[in-house]
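Exercise: predict the fold of this chain.
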Amino acid sequence: MRSRLYPVFKYTVIALWACFVAGPFFWAMTTSFKDVNGVQGGATYLPWLQYEPTVTGWRNIFGGAGGVDVMQPFVNSAVVTVAASAISLVLGSLAAYALSRYRFKLGFIKNSDIVFFFVSQRIMPPVVLVIPFFYLLQWTGLLDTILGLVIVTVALLLPIAVWVMVDFFNGIPREIDEMAMLDGCGPFQTFVRAILPNSLPGLTVAAMFCAVFGWNDFFFAFRLTFTEVQTLPQAVVALNSSIPPWWTLSAAALFGVAPLILLALWVERYLSKGNLSGAVR
């Protein structure tokens, strides 16, 4: 009896959780194709049956009347996210490999303490960091610039890359390093030629985390940019006036989350650790 009820219970829980997760997306999708009459008409979700769909909300986010053009903020967010994620992956992978394969000690400070130091940078509340970042960028003339935002974002994403890659490098057999060195590779060549090709799943996970955190950052972009640079989260929040145009706001929110969904679908194939099978010869 228990064996028959368990699958029913399991799939019921999964279905309920899927509905809970997909519910806000479904609401935003239906709202994005409404106008003021459709929104004020109450809870309506079936197009053509309960309301007449319109593309007013989508037209508004691309510079239509009463809306805002999100293309430049989209480009700004893409540049900041891609640049910061790439730099964080390069620096984070190098630091993680050193922490995984070599032993560092300065008094009571060891490798585990250094890794914790990196992770602790994400523990601190963002409000603690924004004032030092503000004065640093102001002093260097990078306030309200793409470059300044990239530098700050790298500081936020680097701990994530180090944390993910240290754990992954620890799971790669050291025999791979030894065989590469027997073939005449130095430490850096071993890292590039032997370790990185076997680290694609870990790099994918780290890149995904970096992309999500970098793309969704609003607090630092809001505090460190003003008129010259605006990211997509800022543009979406700017639509939330005293009387929010829910159709435009929903379209902008879906447009903002779409790149992350497409990225997740594209990199899903690389998330299997089975790529390491046969790596040790």
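Check your answer against the key: Confidence is low (pLDDT under 50) at residues 273-281.
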